[in-house]
Design brief:
The chain is of the alpha+beta class and 86 residues long. Helix content is 31%, strand content 20%.
């Protein structure tokens, strides 16, 4: 996951959910611009999920991310795209 927030805020967010996920802090907005998700003058980003394979190829972009079902949607999309289980 990528966030425009600083590392401390991202750490607090992950801890508040007891999540063991990695959040990249893109405080310079470099990644957001590179992936074309920067909006409103760069202050916000569009919510997108990019499925990138081990060769660095973008296999799919989910442009309709639903926060309530994102976990299940990601699992289903990974399965449908044929990504290996870990």
């Amino acid at each position: 996951m990528v966030s425009l927030d600083d590392p401390e805020k991202n750490r607090a967010f992950a801890e508040s959910l007891s999540a063991k996920l990695v959040l990249l802090s893109d405080t310079t907005k470099t990644v957001a611009r590179a992936f074309g998700v920067s909006t409103l003058g760069g202050f916000f980003t569009k919510r997108r999920t990019f499925y990138i394979d081990l060769n660095g190829r973008i296999r799919h972009i989910d442009r309709d991310v639903q926060v309530e079902s994102a976990g299940q949607d990601i699992a289903r999309n990974l399965e449908e795209l044929g990504f290996p289980h870990r």
